[in-house]
Amino acid sequence: xxxxxxxxxxxxxxxxxxxxxxxxxxxxxxxxxxxxxxxxxxxxxxxxxxxxxxxxxxxxxxxxxxxxxxxxxxxxxxxxxxxxxxxxxxxxxxxxxxxxxxxxxxxxxxxxxxxxxxxxxxxxxxxxxxxxxxxxxxxxxxxxxxxxxxxxxxxxxxxxxxxxxxxxxxxxxxxxxxxxxxxxxxxxxxxxxxxxxxxxxxxxxxxxxxxxxxxxxxxxxxxxxxxxxxxxxxxxxxxxxxxxxxxxxxxxxxxxxxxxxxxxxxxxxxxxxxxxxxxxxxxxxxxxxxxxxxxxxxx
Length: 299
Hints:
Blueprint: H1 27-61, H2 77-105, H3 111-141, H4 148-159, H5 168-197, H6 203-220, H7 222-233, H8 243-254, H9 263-291
Helix pairs in contact: 1-2, 1-9, 2-3, 3-4, 3-5, 5-6, 5-7, 6-9
């Protein structure tokens, strides 16, 4: 676990902030800038890498020896972009002020716990948008519906509004550990890199660290992603009765290796996505900070 010496300017860095002797934090500014930076970064990732996500989803839902359809790899992109913007904005918008507050509470040698806790809180907040988006997107990706409007209409008609939150618990089971672990790895690597290099990180370095943190986290959480995907796309067929039944059925019918279906595309997608996301995130934050410099009194 890395330790950063106290920073005289706590707003100089975006993702790894150490308040040091300066206890004042502008939480509204952190929320505002986090929402903008998170939204921009989230849309950039989804727009660039959506086909890989589609392939990953189809691999995970394929049962037995079913072949994968490589047509319509951009199916569901519109709804995903529409949901990704507010979800990513909420995620980073909540994460930044939560992290800064927790960094004041935890001792500096336990700052990783602040990153883990803030990531978990942010993931829970953004799940209210991410889950319905994921449900609609993945059902379009797997060919159940042709458009967003028909997906929304038929899901609500057949399953009620709760159908839009199908697999919600499995989503949290996957995303909360993912968010906490990814951000913790990213934060700690940035802190250590800054200490070793004795300077700020440049854009390629932020992207490289983001890619590494995302890829490692994506590989580790693949079984959770498979479970989440199966529960979200089953609709009214109800192949699985819940998380535990889903795990038992997959292992029994397809073997333990089935829990790692789609790991290759997932790691590729999330690794490249992490590079884009964190690179755009840091760049956007720096741009916002330059346009809205704080006065000495505010600092």
